[in-house]
TrEMBL record, chain A:
Name by which UniProt lists this protein: Protein containing domains DUF403
Family annotation (Pfam families): Alpha-E
InterPro entries tied to this protein: ATP-dep_Glu-Cys_Ligase-2 (IPR051680), DUF403 (IPR007296)
Stretch forming the signal peptide: none
Residue ranges of domain DUF403 in the record: 1-309
Superkingdom of origin: Bacteria
From TrEMBL, chain B:
Pfam families to which the protein is assigned, alphabetical: CP_ATPgrasp_2
UniProt cross-references to InterPro entries, sorted A to Z: ATP-dep_Glu-Cys_Ligase-2 (IPR051680), CP_ATPgrasp_2 (IPR025841), UCP005522 (IPR016450)
SUPFAM superfamilies: Glutathione synthetase ATP-binding domain-like
Organism: Acidisarcina polymorpha
The protein, known as: Protein containing domains DUF404, DUF407
Domain Circularly permuted ATP-grasp type: 90-466
Amino acid sequence: MLSRVADSLYWMSRYLERAENTVRLLDTNMGLMLDKSSTSAERRWQRVLATIGKPEGCEWKGDVYEFVDQLCFDDTKAAAVTSCIVLARENARQVREEISSEQWQRLNRLFHEVTKQTDSDRSELRLSEFLPSVVDGIHLFQGVTDTTLSHGEGWQFIQIGRYIERASSTARLLEIYHHDSFTTMEEVHDGFEYLEWIGLLRTCTAFEAYCKVYTADLTYDRILEFLVLDADFPHSIRFCIDSLVNALRAVQQDSRGHHAEELMRLSGRLQASLRYGQISEILERDAGIYLRRILDLCLQIHELIYEVYIRYSVQTALAM
Amino acid sequence: MSTARPSGHLENPALAEYFLDHAFDEMFGEHGEIRPQYRELLEALTSIPRDELQRRKRSADVSFLTQGITFTVYGREEGTERIFPYDLLPRVITSAEWQHIERGLTQRITALNLFLHDIYNEGRILEQGFVPREIVYSCQHFRRQMRGLQVPRNVYIAVAGTDLLRLESGEFAVLEDNLRVPSGVSYMLTNRRIMKRTFPQLFRSYGVRPIEHYTQALLGTLKSLAPEGRPEPSIVLLTPGVYNSAYFEHTYLARQMGIELVEGRDLVIHDNVVYMRTTAGLKRVDVIYRRVDDDFIDPLSFRPDSILGVAGLFNAYRAGNVTLANAFGTGVADDKALYAYVPQIIKYYLGEDPVLNNVETFLMTDPVQRRHVLDNIGSLVVKAVGESGGYGMLIGPHSSKAQQEEFKRHIEANPRNYIAQPTLNFSRAPCLQEDGSIQPRHVDLRPYILFGDKVTIVPGGLTRVALRKGSLVVNSSQGGGSKDTWVLSY
């Protein structure tokens, strides 16, 4: 597979995953707003901003509707949902001959649905219909991807993009919540009530799955355990890293130099730490540092993928 | 200009605005009688209610858009991707008409390939004065670098798209040959797919000859041109990238053929061998179906400012390590001034009269012909020889005095750069209008010719339509559209 193609498939997948994460984050928090909650709007939306990486030019100015509208539709902002979908489609367009036509049509339709939204379409009510419809569109795309595209190298790069993005975003979300609940003085731990924990779980589509394992008894350490260490839940960091390592193994080529070894070593070590980690241990040390470390490793893995498959030097390649 | 109505069909309200004059009408004969090959189509149209037709048109539109069958419009901010407007009614060509076209095109491409080999080697035709040297050497697409270079099987033009018009007499004539990177074949193929869905019954009963094997034939042609000793050649399609107006076509063809679609930045040249960068390291490339013009393909040999090409590609080509289709320097054979000499070229190499005639062409380098054009510019079409896609063109009868004066100045300043032709009243075919009526619009026809170990011309082509009433311009870049072309098997 062409390096450029692998690159585009990887980013197509990352951008869609990112769009989905942002949409769910906005949708969940808009829903929580309707309930009485002790968390101030200010604090809630600041937390949302931090979770998506404090994108430049995006600020909380006190109007929820305007805020969400901006994060959905302002395509001058790279983090906006529309921007992510436009970029995903642009990457797909560059590799149209490599993806299935069903995939292309599904993504193209989503693109047209999202970009044709006019100001008048964007009332609060429409927004609350729009957000879940984007998630639906992305889920359809993923379903079509899994059923129409050969599960060869291209598909594996799509998995790599999806899981590295999802692992990073879950880690960042947990880090922000951790930071917020332990360092904000206005409410200490016990004031951080039930609704907030539901919000956190819902943002990861994890509420129902959590209840199946731990019942509806929501506690911080169990939630952390579930979202970090659960082996079976598709949004837990462990699940994401397991999937990532599987995909990396599937595309691994023999004798690709020391960068390839480094990539397998680094991702394997992360996988092992999640597989054999214990929540008590993580909490004892510092969960914040632990989560930040995962984010760092994801970034390093990303860099190494580039070194091995995409940006390698011609000299080394000819020598091999 | 006298206008008449087709006789005997006035009861059909959709035809109320149909008019006939001295232009050849594809559906009706001289006296308004319907041509047999259109009878069934017209009957079907009469039996389908207008709003049902509109519905089918809309559903086809949606299909084009969601499939992303679009072209990129240059120089516009908004909506840079557009669907290529198309007309729902097919153009029908009889088996006998097609046989004639096929024979003519085969003869033409064979002669043009011989011509290119000759001018880049011995130059016999120039020596003997059948084609003036100046025309060849002053052509901006002539590539000195190609002299004496042997190309596989002596195939210079592997892929061509030749534009045909039907004159008032009903006879087909060649308007121009496109021998560099002809485009549009993907629209021929996708139009067909959508038409099959839009008129399934009609399609079945008509006995239309299939065209779907085009991509397989293209792949076979490319394969047959691989360098010696590469029995399982690796073939790629080289595109300028996603901003090129024909990008959809590039992705479509690469996918249909199952070959890699590469950009210049994917290729690396080492020791005169071309490689592509893959996730498994560098992989050798043997044949490049390039959709990048000569000028941009190798910044070392041609335009140094090009970022689309690959440095060193020409040297790898010269070393015989990679084949390019089409070869460098084929543009000299589709130069609009050289076009006037194609009948002589056919006669010189094949000893035959041309099956398909040229359109009368005035060369500005000839003082007598130039005088004639300058005096009659208001009734002629003037074209810049280096332009394509309907740019750099003056249509005399539709132009202002000021435009005519401007073109006269251009011609006098640089006669080699212009040719003129009579304003042709080429044929019209029935087209479905927005309001549901059927009206005649001017059409041309671009069949696609493949030349490898044999000549393949799939029965059909891209029929381009001037969508506006009275307009003679069919180019997509100028607002033209297209329609499916049905070549009948009987």
